[in-house]
């Protein structure tokens, strides 16, 4: 899940409501690859309409594929559309998006992020050290991940002082179940992880955040495609504003009712750190997770770059993880057989049994390799390949072994009344594209179960024609 994927699910009115403020436009622009951003910057200062022939001339012949890919992506996001104009075809840029992009390019976001009533607000408390912000975000987010792994582990709690704004806070178990990451066990206070949940654990922080935020918005009643356009716009623009407001705390008293509730929930998830000013006023400091949310793709991953890698993988399938985090150890156990657990070191081995157990649970081999690369120890990252080729290739081979055979519902036909009826049945199945296999010697025919009704009707008609009924 990503911001661009989220936007493809929105309705037209929802996009209009989102682009009433610059935050969604900026975050979406940052999430796009360089060719798409280049195209949007070219469109920014036009009338909004550019002929398709002129757009095609923006790339050299060797880069036409990149330009075509960018245009397809922008069209899928409905930022660009094609229309007829003066006998020719033109690309049209979304007018509200163009207006916000121009505004930000000329004025920036600083004016938008300054509190309008700053003169009457109490002075902000001293900014917490960066290490404190990172530690708070890490603790809250790891509590959520650990709850995914172990349902008996407590989910992240609402910070003190915010109960009046959000009551009990986010119902994290219901949020995870709604996102399809876990399935609650009936009659027990625990759950089991789904295939999506396993993939979620191995995903990068940006993908994890957007997966949770999408479900959070759906729980608020602002799901993509619903009629709650203005509500979704308020919630999503506020969330994206948090990430674009790095280093600028916001007073809780300045926020509206809906924004206060969302802010309290985001503090529970680790995106905001609450701190009290000397006068007692509560201020909210965005953490690096908020920057990840609005960073977009690689920018979002870079915003989380404060977390140092800890995994070393050797060509003999040995894994060394310098960590004391219960979450990181639990995730490693998904595909690593733990051989020794020391105070600050986990020693394990990627075995056939441990790998196939993870692959059978729905985790892809490339996801395991990507996870190991993403969390590589700095010394291992400095000596490519980060994951030895023999380990990466073996994981893919084990995955191919699991997917080499597949099950498919089928129907077997036998005991045909005559060879002619059998031959015609085989010919008809081949004509339908439904012939799985046949055995002329034993007069056996196998077709997918979905074609049974068609084959049964054909055989009934042929029997009558041949007088075999």
TrEMBL record:
Q: Which Gene3D superfamilies match?
A: 3.30.70.2610
Say yes or no: keyword Glycoprotein present: no
Record's subcellular location: Nucleus
Biological processes per GO annotation: nucleotide-excision repair
Q: Which InterPro entries match?
A: Tfb2_C (IPR040662), TFIIH_p52/Tfb2 (IPR004598)
Taking every annotated instance into account, which residue ranges of this chain make up the domain Transcription factor Tfb2 C-terminal? 393-460
The record's listing under Pfam families reads: Tfb2, Tfb2_C
Q: Which GO terms describe its molecular function?
A: ATPase activator activity; double-stranded DNA binding
Keywords, in A-Z order: DNA damage, DNA repair, Nucleus, Transcription, Transcription regulation
The main location is nucleus
What does the entry list under GO cellular component?
A: transcription factor TFIIH core complex; transcription factor TFIIH holo complex
| Annotated function | Component of the general transcription and DNA repair factor IIH (TFIIH) core complex which is involved in general and transcription-coupled nucleotide excision repair (NER) of damaged DNA.
Q: Which family does it belong to?
A: Belongs to the TFB2 family.
Which protein, by its recorded name, is this? RNA polymerase II transcription factor B subunit 2
């Amino acid at each position: 899940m990503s911001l661009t994927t989220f936007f493809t699910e929105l309705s037209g009115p929802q996009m209009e409501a989102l682009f009433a403020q610059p935050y969604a436009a900026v975050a979406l622009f940052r999430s796009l690859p360089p060719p798409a951003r280049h195209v949007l910057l070219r469109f920014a200062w036009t009338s909004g309409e550019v002929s398709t022939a002129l757009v095609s001339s923006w790339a050299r012949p060797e880069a036409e594929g990149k330009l075509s890919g960018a245009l397809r992506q922008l069209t899928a996001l409905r930022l660009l559309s094609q229309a007829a104009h003066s006998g020719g075809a033109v690309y049209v840029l979304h007018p509200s998006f163009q207006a916000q992009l121009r505004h930000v390019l000329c004025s920036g976001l600083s004016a938008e992020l300054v509190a309008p009533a700053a003169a009457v607000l109490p002075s902000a408390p001293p900014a917490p050290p960066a290490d404190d912000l990172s530690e708070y975000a890490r603790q809250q987010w790891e509590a959520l991940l650990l709850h995914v792994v172990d349902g008996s582990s407590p989910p992240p709690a609402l910070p003190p002082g915010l109960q009046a704004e959000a009551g009990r806070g986010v119902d994290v178990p219901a949020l995870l179940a709604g996102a399809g990451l876990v399935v609650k066990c009936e009659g027990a206070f625990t759950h089991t992880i789904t295939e999506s949940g396993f993939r979620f654990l191995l995903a990068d922080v940006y993908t994890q955040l957007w997966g949770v935020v999408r479900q959070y918005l759906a729980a608020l009643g602002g799901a993509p495609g619903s009629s709650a356009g203005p509500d979704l716009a308020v919630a999503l623009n506020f969330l994206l504003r948090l990430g674009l407001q790095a280093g600028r705390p916001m007073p809780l008293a300045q926020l509206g009712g809906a924004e206060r509730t969302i802010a309290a929930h985001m503090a529970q998830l680790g995106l905001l750190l609450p701190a009290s000013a000397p006068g007692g006023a509560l201020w909210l400091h965005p953490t690096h997770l908020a920057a990840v949310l609005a960073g977009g793709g690689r920018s979002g991953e870079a915003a989380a770059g404060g977390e140092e890698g800890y995994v070393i993988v050797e060509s003999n399938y040995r894994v060394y993880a310098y960590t004391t985090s219960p979450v990181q150890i639990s995730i490693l156990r998904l595909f690593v057989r733990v051989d020794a657990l020391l105070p600050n070191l986990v020693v394990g081995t990627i075995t056939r049994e441990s790998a196939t157990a993870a692959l059978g649970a729905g985790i892809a081999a490339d996801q395991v390799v990507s996870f190991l690369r993403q969390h590589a120890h700095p010394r291992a990252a400095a000596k490519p390949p980060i994951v030895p080729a023999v380990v990466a290739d073996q994981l893919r081979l084990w995955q191919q072994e699991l997917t080499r055979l597949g099950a498919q519902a089928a129907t077997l036909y036998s005991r045909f009344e005559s060879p002619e009826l059998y031959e015609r049945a085989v010919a008809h199945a081949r004509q339908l594209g439904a012939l799985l296999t046949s055995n002329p010697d034993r007069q056996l025919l196998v077709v997918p179960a979905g074609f049974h009704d068609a084959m049964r009707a054909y055989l009934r008609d042929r029997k009558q024609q041949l007088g075999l009924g």
